[in-house]
Amino acid sequence: MEVTRGRGLLASWCPQEAVLRHEAVALFLMHSGWNSTLESLSGGVPMLSWPFFAEQPTNSLYKRAKWGVAMDVGGGGDVRREAVEARIREAMGGEKGRAMRKRAAEWSEGAARATRLGGSSFGNLDSLIKDVLLSGRRS
């Protein structure tokens, strides 16, 4: 705690979505779980993927190879501090990092459009409510 005083905060829990939307957050080191991936995309934050199991390797692959918003930390569960530092530096200052930030911003804009009134996600949720949840009700 003393070493990071004034430079960081260690908390037992925090509202991740709010943290990812903060202007000071430039990169998210994550295991690549689906919920965190969606929150990061919605917040426009590029990612460093460190997947372990279940859907995480697949999510990581898509984020890197298809969507262009992430880099892999590499090494599976045995990653050295130097490797993480090198990836952070590359993501924050390199050409690939600039491209990831641009793509993450595009994903964020798309998520905002989809969830607005008239957007695709808004419409799909509205249809679900009407067709499934309210279909048996009478007016």
TrEMBL record:
SUPFAM superfamilies: UDP-Glycosyltransferase/glycogen phosphorylase. It comes from the Eukaryota. The keyword Transferase applies. InterPro entries: UDP_glucos_trans, UDP_glycos_trans_CS. It holds the Pfam family UDPGT. CDD domains: GT1_Gtf-like (cd03784). PROSITE patterns: UDPGT. Keywords: Glycosyltransferase, Transferase. GO terms for molecular function: quercetin 3-O-glucosyltransferase activity; quercetin 7-O-glucosyltransferase activity. The keyword Transferase applies. Belongs to the UDP-glycosyltransferase family. This is Uncharacterized protein. It comes from Oryza nivara.
